[in-house]
Amino acid sequence: MFSKWMDHAVHGILLLCVGVTLMTTLVVIFLLGKESFLFFREVPVTEFLFGTNWAPLLEPKSFGVLPLVAGTLKVVFGAILIALPFGLLIATYLSEFASNNVRSVIKPVLEILAGIPTVVYGYFALTFVTPIIRTVFPETNIFNAASAAIVVGIMILPMVSSLCDDAFRGLPGTLREGAYALGGTHLEVTSQIILPAAAPRIGAAVILALSRAVGETMAVTLAAGATPNWSIGFLESIQTMTAYIVQVSLGDIPAGGVEYYTVYAVGMLLFLMTLTMNIIGNHFILKSKQYNS
Prior knowledge:
- The chain has helices at residues 2-40, 45-50, 66-97, 100-115, 118-136, 145-169, 173-181, 186-197, 199-214, 218-224, 241-249, 258-292; strands at residues 54-55, 62-63.
- By secondary structure, it is an all-alpha fold.
- This is Phosphate transport system permease protein.
- Residues 69-281 form the ABC transmembrane type-1 domain.
């Protein structure tokens, strides 16, 4: 009788947690949609999505969000160019080559990287990464996309390596055993069997890391600057979508104006971007399950 009561209690608690999570998501979507609607009553959607000049706080006002999107994507793809190869190499070494003693040392070090506050990464970019970049490229601005991309790449490195490591270790042992039985070397088994078999899960790991990088705030706010810039260079100051939200959230803009509602419009666009990435990541996960089955 007691065990049956406990089963019902645990079931109710778990259902409550699911309900709270779902309700929180729906409330966030409702608030973003409601406030964004007030913004789009004043600014056409086409001007917001396709305009190339972002100056909502200056006169004449302009609400083209593409410079913010470009700055965000510049940091994100620069970060993944750093995190993916290093994370994949670290995960391959930990899963296929490292001994248990070495693994027990490297894994905690990576977890320490994940636990460092993002504001520390921002100051690390300003005081360490940027001076190094300026010694090589003297024309680099104090605030620049390159240093932001580097520190965000370091930030998501533990996530990429950990998820890729889980992907490798989650593969059936028969894959390795069969490959070794056919005479494959350690390197051949890793490169020709393990990596292709784990490719869908690696893709999901990359998408999740991209979502993490898109939503990064403090590090890019401190390192990249606050200059909406529609360019492909990494040495100039830029502004990301999250950095703009921080700028307006400081309280200098009065509530109720179109400038204030830009925060919600940018937040809604950011939400849709991360939602799209999560859908793509789930596609990779489903594909990996079908592959393993």
